[in-house]
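Deliverable D4.2, example record:
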Amino acid sequence: MNITYLIYEAERPRSMAEQRAADERAGQLASAVARLGHSLTHRAPGKRDGRRPARTTISRAIPRPRVPADR
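Output generated by the structure prediction step:
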């Protein structure tokens, strides 16, 4: 990898057309990543209204202390 060329590319001024093309490519990449993220999420089975199930809170994740049987 030629570091000098990368520095040159980063520091040189770009024309409006080059900047517009770079912005368009960045937008297309962001759109593709968003579509991928949306396709990886799925609805919970049995849920028809589209709402997500409630997430587990910390209070539910901590087990309750055991109560002695002689009480």
